[in-house]
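As a warm-up, study this chain.
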Amino acid sequence: MVQEENNIEDMDGNTMMPMYVGKIDEMHDFIKEQRTLQETPLNKYLSYAVFATLIVVGLMYSQMNGMHERVRVSESKLDFVLESFDNYKNSVKALNGIVCIQCHNTPDMMLQNLGVVFSDVDSFKTYVRTGGRQKNGMVMPPIPAESVDDYTLVRIYNSLK
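Now compare it with the structure written out below.
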């Protein structure tokens, strides 16, 4: 019966031994200290600094995505320019030293993709020998065999195909 008098009831009406009550009080004090540490201004400023850093990192990430898109567009434009330059260089190299270079020396008039326009070498040679109207409205004069021989026309067709 002496033991029952020393027992303490908790909120639910259950009885507890006094030795556990001291431990509970210690835990309660520890939790109270932790809460006061969490409410210090240093922790508030630290949490604001972390939040601001996350916002800055998010903004930088969004800017990097925009820059990546601009770089990709610039790369595609640069690829187009380099491809056009290569086509022009190949056209000038193929036509160097013959009468055709007089007209086909600008990027607008250069010869390229002859394999798409002409199905074979013979159709290309026939077009060059007879002349004709081009897609842009310009008229190509007929080129006689004395000016450009058949071997040269085959070489031009194969290099610009």
